[in-house]
Amino acid sequence: MRAIRALTLSILVLAAGVAAAVERAVPYADMHKIFSRIASVDGARFVKLRPTWSAADGSMAPGDIRMTIKSRAGDIVVPVDEKGRASFPVRADLEQENPDVMVNVAQGQLTLNIGMDIDAPPEQRFRYGLMQQMQDEIDELMKEQGMMARMFAPDFDALVVEFPPGTAATAVVESSEGAESFTADAQGRIALEDRRAWRREDPWVQLSAKPTRITLRQED
Q: Burial code of 188-220, b = ≥16 C-beta within 10 A, e = fewer?
């Protein structure tokens, strides 16, 4: 089975300041616009976004990135961990004030990578139409994010059910044409291909055990 690839929605580079400066200033409003859109996805059923910071040229480890919001009420330090994760404050009062966000990454190198996890609740029995529901949610989210996001939106060709590696698990698609059984591979994965007939009928899918994950496979 093909590997399940990590998905990246987009890579956004933020650059500001003069070339000779040690720190660079990025307007808070620019950051707010990005992170408020990311926050709008929090209520999604299947999709979760994973924003991480990095230096595009690899000159700095993510954990060495420093961000400080220079608010009139006092500096707000935004810690970035070794994986580039940070909890950036999305606040209306800061958007109105629009202070500088000082960063210690060279001009043109501060990059926000937005990864995307797509997971359904790991049920042992579900309808095949779950695949379409997951795709529909992704399509709607891409539409809300604008033209650039739609251009990079991934396509999918299978619903993938995952079990611990080596598990002798099966999935049975109970269609009107007869039950069809699928066996997990050595990695514990079963891929239920995108079939038009199954989309129309929406049959039940019965698993032999509760899976660890139900996700989508990205088209090559």
A: bbbbbebeeebeebebebebbeebebbbbbbee
- Do residues 112 and 164 share a domain? no
- CA dist 163 and 170 (Å) reads 10
**Do the beta carbons of residue 207 and residue 124 sit within 8 Å?**
yes
Indicate whether 15 and 98 sit together in one domain. yes
Predicted confidence (pLDDT) per residue in 87-129, tens digit: 999 999 999 999 999 999 887 788 888 888 899 999 999 999 9
Rounded distance between C-alpha atoms, residue 77 and residue 81, angstroms:
13
Six-digit token pair at 32? 């707010």
pLDDT single digits (tens) 184-211: 999 999 999 999 999 999 999 999 999 9
The distance in angstroms from the start CA to the end CA of the chain is 13
Task: Please tell me whether residues 20 and 98 are part of one structural domain.
Answer: yes
The pLDDT of residue 141 is 81
Range of the domain at 196: 122-128+155-218
- CA-nearest of 37, 29, 106, 36 to 71 is 29
Q: Is the pLDDT of residue 148 over 60?
A: no
The reported pLDDT for the residue numbered 24 is 81
Residue 67 confidence (pLDDT) above 50: yes
